[in-house]
């Protein structure tokens, strides 16, 4: 992969990125999900990318070059997790993605900027729900680019005329005319029809390192060809993806809104439903019974920049939000939260403020748990395909060292997390400091 331009832009300077060493954070109150409260002042030692020790007493370290941070009684909480992002699609407009002059270097530079900003907003982990993500993830993991941990799905898998069919009007079917679409060549999507094609597409993503598989099971609001009500993929096609994923010890997540599409996905063995704003009570009860995750969003209203077609397609989705969130909570469905910003890069700066939209249905403690511990549990459905083994979303000994030091108590004032530039005093991912506004010694 050509990474020269992105490396030049995003190689981290020593002023921002402190090499991994022991970090002792003293005098901090820990966010405890079990009690929905803050602990008394504690000391926390981070070492080898993990939370090694938590104690009310002083902690000593054998590493003479350790970094010491006085937390001054502030709140130490887990890093934020967004369970449904598109690191590439969210950084570009549709016009930019389809621009024939868009090169890999330009693409990576744009998504690299967004990746850095996302980590600076306190998001230390994300699940990428489809797109050409592997070069960016590799660059982050190698320390060449700043960004969150990424659980990648790889190219979305879509039927012809499905939600992942991004062909322009002049692009013909690969099956009949032999030429892949530009979106397929970019690694954005696989257009796969029939059991054999779905198996190949699934295995191809797994070959590149997908931690889970993203399948399009119903109509979408941002795609050109499919009405929102349509069901996509036959049961046999969907089962093919599930079987191939399960053979690799992981799972399938599906894009779907309607009860019909979601019931078919559940029958096929899918573990995570993405969106679902048009769900009914019967299907939600089925999800609760079968322990299926609902990875849901709380979308903003239509804006003037959207096409009339997209505005019309979004209506039933927007209308369903106020019903589905509280009903899913009441019925005990496993709930995860994500943003799903798609081809609207101007929204990225609002990622944190979207969390506050959950206050209509959840307490501050419930929201903080959802965007950390609950989302982390969903990520770990990847099992051995998880790129980052270990426990996330909690402040516990032996958990991965992804933590935020917050200036205030987010249990009392959730709005603190909506202003990360001001209120996130320290940002640490994998035991490395990426932001620190406090004095160290």
TrEMBL record:
Record domain Amidohydrolase-related: where: 75-432
Keywords annotated in UniProt: Hydrolase, Signal
Alphabetized Gene3D superfamilies for the sequence: Metal-dependent hydrolases, Urease, subunit C, domain 1
InterPro entries found in the cross-reference section: Amidohydro-rel, Metal-dep_hydrolase_composite, Metal_Hydrolase, Metallo-dep_Hydrolase, OTAase-like
Pfam families reported in the protein's UniProt record: Amidohydro_1
Signal peptide feature range: 1-19
Cross-referenced SUPFAM superfamilies: Composite domain of metallo-dependent hydrolases, Metallo-dependent hydrolases
GO molecular function, one term: hydrolase activity, acting on carbon-nitrogen (but not peptide) bonds
Taxonomic superkingdom: Bacteria
Record-given protein name: Imidazolonepropionase-like amidohydrolase
Organism in which the protein naturally occurs: Mesonia hippocampi
């Amino acid at each position: 992969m050509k990474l020269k331009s992105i490396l030049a832009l995003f190689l981290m300077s020593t002023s921002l990125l402190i090499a991994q060493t022991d970090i002792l954070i003293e005098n901090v109150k820990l966010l405890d999900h079990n009690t929905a409260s803050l602990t008394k002042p504690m000391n926390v030692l981070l070492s080898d990318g993990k939370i090694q020790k938590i104690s009310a007493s002083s902690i000593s370290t054998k590493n003479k070059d350790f970094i010491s941070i006085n937390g001054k009684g502030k709140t130490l909480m887990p890093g934020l997790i967004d369970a449904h992002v598109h690191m590439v699609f969210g950084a570009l407009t549709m016009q930019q993605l389809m621009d024939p002059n868009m090169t890999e270097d330009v693409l990576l530079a744009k998504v690299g900027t967004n990746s850095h900003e996302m980590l600076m907003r306190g998001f230390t982990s994300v699940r990428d729900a489809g797109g050409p993500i592997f070069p960016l993830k590799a660059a982050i993991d190698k320390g060449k680019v700043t960004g969150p941990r990424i659980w990648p799905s790889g190219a979305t898998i879509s039927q012809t005329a499905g939600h992942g069919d991004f062909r322009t009007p002049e692009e013909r079917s690969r099956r009949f005319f032999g030429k892949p679409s530009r979106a397929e060549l970019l690694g954005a999507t696989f257009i796969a029809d029939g059991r054999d094609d779905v198996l190949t597409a699934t295995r191809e993503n797994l070959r590149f390192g997908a931690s889970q598989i993203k399948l399009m099971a119903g109509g979408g609001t941002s795609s050109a060809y499919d009405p929102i009500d349509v069901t996509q993929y036959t049961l046999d096609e969907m089962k093919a993806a599930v079987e191939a994923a399960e053979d690799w010890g992981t799972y399938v997540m599906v894009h779907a809104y309607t009860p019909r599409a979601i019931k078919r996905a559940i029958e096929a063995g899918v573990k995570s439903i993405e969106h679902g704003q048009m769900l009914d009570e019967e299907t939600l009860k089925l999800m609760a019974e079968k322990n299926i995750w609902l990875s849901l969003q709380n979308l903003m209203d239509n804006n003037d920049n959207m096409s009339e077609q997209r505005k019309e397609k979004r209506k039933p989705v927007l209308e369903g939000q106020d019903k589905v969130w509280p009903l899913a909570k009441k019925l005990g469905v496993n709930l995860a939260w994500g943003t799903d910003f798609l081809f609207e890069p101007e929204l990225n700066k609002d990622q944190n403020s979207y969390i506050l939209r959950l206050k209509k249905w959840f307490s501050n403690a419930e929201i903080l748990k959802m965007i950390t511990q609950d989302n982390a549990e969903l990520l770990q459905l990847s099992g051995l395909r998880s790129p980052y083994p270990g426990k996330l979303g909690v402040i516990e000994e032996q958990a991965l060292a992804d933590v935020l030091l917050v200036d205030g108590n987010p249990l009392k004032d959730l709005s603190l997390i909506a202003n990360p530039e001001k209120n996130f005093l320290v940002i640490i991912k994998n035991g490395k400091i990426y932001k620190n506004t406090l004095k160290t010694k």
